[in-house]
Amino acid sequence: MAEFDVVIRGGVVIDGTRMPRYQADVGIKDGEIAKIGKLKGHEGRKVIDAAGMNVVPGFVDLHTHYDAQLFWDPYCTISSWHGVTSVVIGNCGFGFAPVKPELRDRSMLTMTRTEAIPYASMKAGLPWDWVTYPEFLNSVERHPKGVNMLPFVPMAPVMIWAMGLEDAKSGRKPTAAETETMKQLVRNAMDHGACGWSAQRLGRNSVQADFDGTPMVTDLMADETALALAGVLGERNEGFIQMTYVPDAAGDYVAAMNHSEKHFEELATAAGRPILYNVVLINDAYPERFREQLRWLESCVKRGIRVYGQGLMLEQSFTFTFKDWNLWDDSPAWRECTTGSIEDRLLKLSDPERRPELRQVVQSGVITNNVADIFVIECRRPELKKYENLKVGEIAQMENKHPVDAMLDIAVADGLNTEFYTPPLNVRVDHMSEVIHSNAMAIFGVSDGGAHTKFFTGGRYPTEMLIKFVRENPVMSLEEAHFRLSAHPAMCAGFKNRGTLVEGAAADVVIYDLERLKIEPMEVVHDFPGDEWRRVQRAKGYHATLVNGEVTFEEGDCTGATPGQLLRHGEGAK
Question: Which of 281, 255, 291 is nearest to 364 (CA)?
Fold first, then answer.
């Protein structure tokens, strides 16, 4: 009788603890790493030949928005194609529980813009067999899963439940009774397994607005409310807060960041728990911005304040059309012109009286530093094909127009079907290396998996990290890379017994050939419910992925196994 369910033979084990790599066999039984050493093939019911390959802990992605997609895609692709075996849901304050039945449609509409999830897919794919947050967790637990899921409580639906939609959207501060209701909702959610709470707080000109262009509920959350909710974690001595916070400061960036940093420190003190700070963002043209973030985070480390920065550690670019684009919502003029139906958008974007304001757009350094640098990728109408593969700035010079006019004239003439491409702002390896080696130790990730699926493919980040910063550039060792991809994020967000490949740990394992790793070109696939589509990038070089000891992918092909677990309180079922 075989001693192990699976034996992985002949690979190089890089265990995620930063210890030196070593060659060994790995025996898996009952979903755990049972034995590492010299094992015999006949000891395993299934034997995986890993000769010449790395055997590592599965990757842990702390920042995803698979709250809807998990119900129609158990594997949370594209993340699982790139070795991710565990994800966090409920980020940024956005989610679908608690939600009263009469507000279900409104909650889906909200997600169509702020996280750009197709409404038709949510309408067809969400089972809505819950009202409360504990009922939502029960639904997630019942549903087949190809990855593990650790849940946060999203604060937008909590605020709406306590205050009512209109009052929560008004920006008024909650009453003492409403605040107590929110606190009780968080307590109840954590009693049932939630691992903390989350919020996006970006003010009235949020870059991720509601479907109608108004701020998200959490964008208007008061500091006092956040501190009261942090106190819930303090009284329980458990849980985490994930938050993005840039307060309104009348355009004064320095004042806004100073206030934000002070508030994060206050939250960490009130909670006595770690705070996940979003986001450490690299812009090669403005390195002083990420360096200031690192200096502050390093000062938190020195003072024992647990604020952990999450880093956008991949080349961030976008392929988009103005049918779906929403990431200039921090500009009121652009936000107004890109809300409403396609017909409304066509009218507004072609209106010459609106163009002066649109030309004044001040880029935040998140999407692009200059509209002129955006490329025209593809036009549908034959007479516009001449613009393909040119920069907007080049077209503007040819036609003696402002770059914004050049871009919008093409988009409008093409019925908003023109595809544009924003080149990445963070391609310098030395700048990325500064973030990687900072004492603040930014958490790898911020894939936004499940969100912005029509113009962003951030779920590829583990593969890109290994290719760019281990194989192609000597930025870090494999030992450091796998600590940062697995053990580090697991520790920072309360995963228990995951993120390392050691005896007794959960058997989330990735087997890959570093020399064969490759990110496939972007493609459009029609695999969402409601006849919707998305952009994806697949990977090559991953020999096998195991979740809780079962193989979910072999050479990129899905096995159909769904061994993933809902990690209540950070741990799975025994």
Answer: 281
| DSSP 3-state of 419 | strand
Is the pLDDT at 34 greater than 90, yes or no?
A: yes
| Over residues 394-419, mean pLDDT | 98
Q: Is the pLDDT of residue 358 over 90?
A: yes
Phi, psi of 8 (to 5 degrees): -100, 115
Residues 195, 312 within the same domain: yes
Decide the pairing of beta strands 148-151 and 84-89: parallel
3-state class percentages of the chain: helix first, strand second, coil last, to nearest 5: 40, 20, 40
Written as one letter, the residue type at 516 is: R
**DSSP H stretches of helix in 32-146:** 104-114, 119-125, 133-142
Neighbours of 175 (CB within 10 A): 12
User: What is the number of domains present in the chain?
Assistant: 3
Q: What is the average pLDDT across 440-450?
A: 95
Domain that holds residue 379: 334-422
Query: 279 preceded by cis ω (within 30°)?
Result: yes
Does 295 lie in the same domain as 224? Answer: yes
- pLDDT of residue 215 exceeding 80: yes
Q: Quick one: pLDDT at residue 363?
A: 58
Cis amide prior to 98 (ω within 30 degrees)? yes
Q: Is the domain of 392 the same as that of 405?
A: yes
Residues 353 and 480 in one domain: no
Domain edge (last residue) among 387, 422, 457: 422
Nearest CA to 148 out of 156, 159, 140 is that of 140
- Pairwise CA distance, residues 152 & 73, whole Å: 20
Q: What CATH code is carried by the domain that includes residue 178? A: 3.20.20.140
* pLDDT on residue 360: 84
Neighbours of 303 (CB within 10 A): 10
| pLDDT at residue 251, rounded to an integer | 66
- Distance CA(364)–CA(522), nearest Å, equals 26
Residues, the chain, total? Answer: 574
Q: Which of 51, 60, 23, 4 is nearest to 509 (CA)?
A: 60
Residues 306 and 369 in one domain: no
CA distance 75 to 66: 10
Domain co-membership, 418 together with 513: no
Distance of CA 192 to the CA centre of its chain: 24
- 513 and 532 belong to one structural domain: yes
CA dist 362 and 364 (Å) reads 6
Tell me what pLDDT residue 572 has. Answer: 87
Average pLDDT over residues 547-569: 98
DSSP string, 218-277: GGG--HHHHHHHHHHHHHHT--EEEEEE----TT-HHHHHHHHHHHHHHHHHHH-S-EEE
**Residue type at 494?**
G
9 & 143 share domain: no
Q: Average model confidence (pLDDT) for the chain?
A: 96
